Amino acid sequence: MKTTIIDGVEVPILPAKAEEIIKNKVTGQIYSSIEEFNADVANPNTPTKAEDLQQDLKITVASLSVFGKTK
């Protein structure tokens, strides 16, 4: 496991994965990209508006057992 020194203490560097989720907050539809959402907004056959955009960020971090010192 990789580590780094912060304030003189060696701490582990945790691998993390970030995933952006583009969603229509009115219909709940999930899009594969912001471009797909924008195409839906531009489509006159759908009621989707730019303000219907919901962007979420899902971050997944590997689990780690932590043992701390107590005083």
Would you summarize the structure shown here?
The protein has one helix at residues 34-42; strands spanning 3-6, 9-12, 16-24, 30-31, 53-61. The protein is mostly beta strands and 71 residues long.
Topology record:
Layout (H helix, E strand, L loop, with lengths): L2 E4 L2 E4 L3 E9 L5 E2 L2 H9 L10 E9 L10
Antiparallel strand pairs: 1-2, 3-4, 3-5
Please give a structural write-up:
By secondary structure, the chain is mainly beta. It has a domain at 18-61. The chain is built from one helix and five strands; from the N terminus they run E-E-E-E-H-E. The protein has one helix at 34-42, and strands at residues 3-6, 9-12, 16-24, 30-31, 53-61.
The helix count comes to 1
Strand content: 35-45%
What oligomeric state is this? single chain
How many DSSP-defined strands?
5
Low-confidence stretches: none
Q: How would you sum up the major sheet?
A: 3 strands, antiparallel
What is the average per-residue confidence, as pLDDT, rounded to a whole number?
A: 90
Instruction: Give the distance, in angstroms, between the N- and C-terminal Cα atoms.
Output: 27 Å
- Largest sheet, spatial ordering of strands: 4-3-5
Described by the principal axes of the CA atoms, the overall outline is: rod-shaped
**Rg (C-alpha, Å):** 20 Å
Q: What is the H-and-E element order?
A: EEEEHE
